[in-house]
Amino acid sequence: MNLSFNYFLESQSSMKSTALVKRSSSQVTDQAVEIIHERIQNGIYPVGSALPSQRELSSELGISRASLREALTRLAALGLLNIMAGKGAYVTALESQPVEQWNIQFKISLKDFYQLRYILEGFSALLACEYISDHDIETLNQHFQQLKAAIEAHHWTEAAEHDFLFHQLIIGLSNNQSIIQSLKNQTDWMKQSQILPFVQPNLAYKTVQEHEQILQALSQRNAAAAEKAMRLHIVGAAQRAGVYFSSHSI
């Protein structure tokens, strides 16, 4: 993974378009959202600039105008685009409005919270290897299987709940009361941060792969691998929610 956590897919985004034609309409829309979002992040479509016309963009991506309009509408709902009737779509931000407006009351950004999770949950996974039992591993696997099934069924709220339970068990297994109480006091924020990554459904299955790596490391009682897997997951989840931060720890 790139340590700067910047998108490096500029050269790949044009290649993805040929694969869109063979997917279902929902998958096509999801991938169109992903490609356009990547291009915004890469500066291909800078803030303040207009996107290509719908005819040009739908032709380039190999998708219908209807699928493209749905993708643009979703990006507009996230605050990334402003669609002006008769004038086109304009890029308004690099980050989604949910990210920018998250917990304004407490002056805590979503980036702040993901960075907190990166530190505390990574260390929790490391500590958990000292205390985890076979029964705990079985329970974690149950949460993992339920998370996987919910994602495959596109039941995002249910997926977020099993994601939350998976993480809570690992935090509890750290046996570090300072960490446990710190994150317990932020349960609502934790749940919010765990449903936001599903705003890009096409990328949701990466959550399954990341949780599988965490579970495998914990099952092997490999503390270093568990910490690394958890931190990679937190970074991946943050990116899927539109949050990017640097680290030199991975």
From TrEMBL:
Superkingdom of the organism of origin: Bacteria
Gene3D superfamilies: GntR ligand-binding domain-like, Winged helix-like DNA-binding domain superfamily/Winged helix DNA-binding domain
PANTHER family: GLUCONATE OPERON TRANSCRIPTIONAL REPRESSOR, TRANSCRIPTIONAL REGULATOR, GNTR FAMILY
Domain HTH gntR-type: 26-94
CDD domains: WHTH_GntR
Entry-linked Pfam families: FCD, GntR
This protein's name: HTH gntR-type domain-containing protein
InterPro entries given in the database record: GntR_C, TF_FadR/GntR_C, Tscrpt_reg_HTH_GntR, WH-like_DNA-bd_sf, WH_DNA-bd_sf
Source organism per UniProt: Acinetobacter soli NIPH 2899
Signal sequence residues: none
The organism's taxonomic lineage, starting at the top: Bacteria, Pseudomonadati, Pseudomonadota, Gammaproteobacteria, Moraxellales
Keyword list, A-Z: DNA-binding, Transcription, Transcription regulation
